[in-house]
């Protein structure tokens, strides 16, 4: 099948789109051939509206409905053009997470992604798998990080070897992968880019959306008083599996914790926030003693952040997902192609135990296209994922 995957993460900077040719053999091997991947920044109005519905903002149901439609129509426009160029049989649309409800004890209670899939189905005529997280939460899981599904099939190594897949989006998440058949552990470690990006926007008066190339962080020094205060966040001490989002790490999160401290220079603030991400990631994965950490997501574009991660993760080596065939900036969109493909074949989309669900479930809901809806017979449970080079490469 040719599957189009759409992902807009917690950074809310745009829509990542990937196209993959996926197949599943009778022995449980999923083959993924990357065909194309693109980034489509949200139009300014769309991004402003998305940011405007995030906590602690109070919004009306009318606002929610309008943003749901806005994201759905923009997604449909992008997919229509992608399908025209590359073809397509199925679409997997994550939507934009605007709220992920977690109890004080760490149990996920619900999740909300906006981006009405009916617009995609209407515009392209293709069936759409969406609302990918809710079923896992209903089954007792965290609904995140679903990257664990791809990571467990893709990065399994030999006995005695552990790899950690690290995604540096707005929130950082990890998947601990051992040998094939070993239990998989996956969880959100805390902020990756969301606090850095919010600080860059505030410090630049809105001119910058991020610390470009980590220049500010590299020019600054870590303020240990602020770092210590930030590390007091109770979330870091919760046991895995666990999940979080921008309803905790809001745009005002850092400003609230600066109260009462001596003034922090802009470059020092960015250096401290990069250090926070690196330290909390390293603290989270250290008990698993990985030999290698495979990074992906927008955070790999920040050299200052990668430098601090290398320092704190040692002796584990830090590589990127490009090493294993999936571009670091596109991995999450390719994840959506895989999850949609599994759901279409009625195969559970969560590795057993990875998110804490009582039993893996088939994920998402299906919006039919314009043609008759004929699902295949349920496929065999996948055992491994092979990523092959694109024919155009």
From TrEMBL:
Sequence positions that bind ATP: 9-16
Name this protein carries in UniProt: Anhydro-N-acetylmuramic acid kinase
Sample GO molecular function, one term: kinase activity
Pfam families: AnmK (PF03702)
Designated gene of the protein: anmK
EC primary class: transferase
Its EC number(s): 2.7.1.170
Pathway annotation from the record: Amino-sugar metabolism; 1,6-anhydro-N-acetylmuramate degradation; Cell wall biogenesis; peptidoglycan recycling
């Amino acid at each position: 099948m040719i599957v189009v995957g759409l992902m807009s993460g917690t950074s809310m900077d745009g829509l990542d789109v990937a196209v993959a040719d996926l197949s599943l053999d009778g022995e449980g091997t999923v083959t993924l051939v990357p065909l194309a991947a693109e980034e489509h920044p949200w139009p300014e109005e769309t991004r402003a509206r998305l940011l405007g519905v995030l906590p602690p903002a109070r919004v009306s149901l009318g606002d929610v409905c309008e943003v749901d439609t806005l994201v759905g129509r923009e997604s449909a426009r992008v997919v229509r053009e992608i399908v025209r160029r590359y073809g397509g049989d199925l679409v997997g649309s994550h939507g934009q997470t605007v709220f992920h409800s977690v109890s004080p004890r760490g149990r996920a209670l619900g999740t909300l992604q906006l981006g009405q899939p009916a617009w995609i189905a209407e515009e392209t005529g293709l069936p759409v798998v969406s609302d990918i997280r809710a079923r896992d939460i209903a089954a007792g899981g965290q609904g995140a990080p679903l990257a664990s599904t791809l990571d467990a099939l893709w990065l399994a190594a030999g006995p005695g070897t552990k790899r950690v897949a690290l995604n540096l989006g707005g929130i950082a998440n990890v998947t601990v992968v051992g040998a094939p058949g070993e239990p998989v552990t996956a969880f959100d470690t805390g902020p990756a880019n969301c606090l850095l990006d919010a600080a860059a926007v505030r410090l630049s008066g809105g001119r910058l959306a991020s610390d470009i190339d980590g220049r500010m962080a590299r020019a600054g020094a870590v303020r240990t008083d602020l770092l210590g205060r930030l590390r007091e966040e109770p979330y870091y001490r919760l046991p895995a599996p666990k999940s979080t989002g921008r309803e905790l790490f809001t745009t005002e999160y850092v400003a609230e914790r600066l109260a009462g401290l001596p003034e922090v220079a802009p470059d020092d603030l960015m250096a401290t926030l990069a250090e926070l991400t690196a330290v909390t990631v390293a603290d989270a994965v250290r008990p698993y003693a990985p030999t290698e950490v495979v990074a992906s997501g927008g955070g790999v574009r920040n050299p200052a952040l990668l430098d601090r991660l290398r320092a704190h993760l040692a002796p584990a080596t830090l590589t990127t997902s490009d090493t294993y065939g999936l571009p670091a900036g596109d991995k999450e969109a390719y994840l959506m192609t895989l999850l949609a493909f599994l759901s279409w074949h009625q195969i559970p989309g969560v590795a057993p135990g990875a998110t804490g669900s009582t039993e893996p479930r088939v994920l998402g809901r299906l919006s039919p296209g314009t043609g008759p809806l004929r699902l295949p017979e349920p496929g065999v449970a996948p055992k491994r994922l092979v990523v092959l080079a694109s024919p155009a490469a």
